[in-house]
Design brief:
Layout lengths: L4 E10 L2 E10 L8 E4 L2 E2 L6 E4 L6 E6 L3 E2 L3 E14 L1 E3 L2 E3 L4 E7 L23 E7 L13 E6 L7 E4 L9 E8 L3 E7 L10 E4 L2 H5 L3 E9 L3 E13 L25 E8 L4
Antiparallel strand pairs: 1-2, 1-20, 2-19, 3-6, 4-5, 5-19, 6-18, 7-18, 8-15, 8-19, 9-10, 11-12, 11-18, 12-13, 13-14, 15-16, 16-17
């Protein structure tokens, strides 16, 4: 792991013409540039960004300060939700631990400073011109959640998901999860694992036109999270993003010596790397 942003421009050969894919790699966020933190904290020990701490009524977000192509992309990130506590009734059921986090692509008027609502809002509600993948740990009857532990694909600042899938293991159990979001221009796929190995099959797949949803072929990329009466500690540990769709996805949040492998299968013909070191 290294504690700086690596911005790599990967030059590929594709159908006889050069294709440039811009790739972001944050193996942690200590000294990171190129992002805007909005009510989110940096853990100075681990280098993780804490979207919402394990307390009532917290929210936070962070987004890239520049926009990236979203007509096709691949992303991978590590997250951890821990220390669930508090309680709240919903639908006659007393629940503990909440509320979850979201991977967000947005082109809202607030730009990189966007942030949404508390609790059920996941820090995402109200962020227009957007698409999100939620990792939800509370069953909200108002948003037709299937259970207390699921993933979903959302749009236009709504936390009523367009499609959902239940997750068999608690998302807020305090262990590191790795999530993959891949979009080939017509279908978004979401994968999850606790062992860091990308599953062959997607847990959730949904046909969506991301460019139409965000109103542009480019958008800000980032994350949101929130708590309510019930709560948990919501952290993003690392993140990698390619604004070109990779058929086999990004295998993991890359180490310094391996991030060029994100280009596997695309006919890599040259790599130019710029590293911005911490002062």
């Amino acid at each position: 792991m290294f504690s700086r942003l690596v911005t790599a421009f990967l030059i590929f050969a594709a159908t006889g013409a050069g294709l440039r894919a811009q790739t972001l790699v944050y193996t942690n966020f200590t000294g990171a540039s190129g992002i805007s933190r909005n009510q989110a904290d940096l853990d100075l020990v681990s280098g993780a960004i804490v979207l919402a701490s394990s307390n009532r009524d917290k929210r936070g977000a962070f987004f890239t300060t520049t926009q990236f192509n979203v007509t096709g992309f691949s992303a991978v990130f590590d997250f951890r939700i821990s220390s669930p506590g508090g309680s709240a009734f919903d639908g006659g059921e007393l629940q503990s631990g909440a509320d979850g986090l979201a991977f967000v692509i947005q082109n809202s008027s607030s730009g990189s400073n966007a942030i949404g609502g508390f609790g059920v809002g996941l820090g995402y509600s109200g962020i227009g011109s957007s698409v999100a993948v939620e990792f939800d740990t509370f069953k909200n009857s108002a948003t037709s959640d299937p259970d207390t532990n699921h993933i979903g694909i959302n749009s236009n600042g709504s936390t009523t998901s367009l499609a959902t899938a239940s997750v068999g293991t608690a998302l807020d159990g305090g262990v590191k999860w790795t999530a993959w979001v891949d979009y080939n221009g017509s279908t978004m796929e979401v994968r999850l694992s606790q062992d860091g190995i990308r599953p062959v099959s997607a847990q959730l797949s949904y046909a969506i036109d991301v460019a139409s949803a965000v109103g542009s072929s480019s958008a800000y990329i980032g994350f949101t999270g929130a708590t309510g009466s019930a709560y948990g500690n919501h952290e993003i540990l690392g993140f990698a993003f390619s604004d070109t769709y990779l058929t086999n996805g990004i295998s993991a949040v890359p180490e310094p010596s391996t991030y060029a492998l994100m280009a596997l299968g695309l006919g890599l013909v040259g790599v130019r790397i710029w590293r911005r070191r911490r002062a």
